[in-house]
């Protein structure tokens, strides 16, 4: 019997992935809390501190997020060795399969391999987005107690330590 368990991989976006992102669908509810990947890609093109990352389930693009270095972090933390996780989403057709949880579990190894000087990942999550808060906490993120204002209101700032030897 073949396992139905999906193999999740995190990869840097490449131009060949453009079509997959053009077919990426987020509901209106998802778009309230996350950016459209194509719009986020434009921001990445204009800012070399933003790194677009794909979440693959097998060969398919199942999710997307951006890792943003100091330019994204500086308003939220004084840690120059932190990355801001932003625009995290899972394509609607892959929702409910545990992909977000698996991707966040793979994030530490990805950061260790590709950003060896980074020792913290931070993110801002909307105070009304309880589902995302739960997923982030399950993945080891902790509420720092700090708050910021976002487009949809108050954002909780979460943090997770990585690369303990840095």
TrEMBL record:
EC number: 2.3.-.-
Keywords for the protein's UniProt record, in alphabetical order: Acyltransferase, Transferase
N-acetyltransferase domain mapped to chain residues: 10-163
Domain of life: Bacteria
Enzyme class: transferase
InterPro entries assigned to the protein according to its UniProt record, in alphabetical order: Acyl_CoA_acyltransferase, GNAT_dom
GO molecular function, one term: acyltransferase activity
Alphabetized Pfam families for the sequence: Acetyltransf_1
Protein name from the UniProt record: GNAT family N-acetyltransferase
Originating species: Sporolactobacillus shoreicorticis
């Amino acid at each position: 019997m073949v396992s139905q368990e999906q193999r999740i991989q995190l990869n840097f976006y490449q131009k060949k992935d453009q079509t997959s992102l053009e077919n990426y669908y987020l509901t209106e509810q998802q778009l309230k809390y996350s950016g459209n990947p194509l719009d986020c890609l434009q921001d990445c093109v204009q800012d070399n501190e933003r790194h677009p990352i794909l979440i693959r389930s097998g060969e398919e693009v199942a999710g997307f997020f951006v890792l943003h270095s100091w330019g994204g972090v500086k308003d939220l933390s004084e840690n120059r060795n932190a990355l801001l996780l932003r625009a995290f989403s899972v394509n609607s057709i892959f929702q409910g399969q545990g992909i977000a949880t698996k991707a966040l579990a793979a994030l530490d190894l990805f950061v260790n391999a590709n950003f060896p000087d980074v020792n913290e990942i931070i993110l801002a999550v909307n105070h009304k987005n309880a589902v995302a808060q739960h997923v982030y906490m399950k993945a080891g993120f902790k509420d720092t107690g700090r708050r910021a204002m976002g487009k949809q209101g108050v954002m909780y700032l979460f943090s997770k330590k990585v690369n303990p030897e840095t």
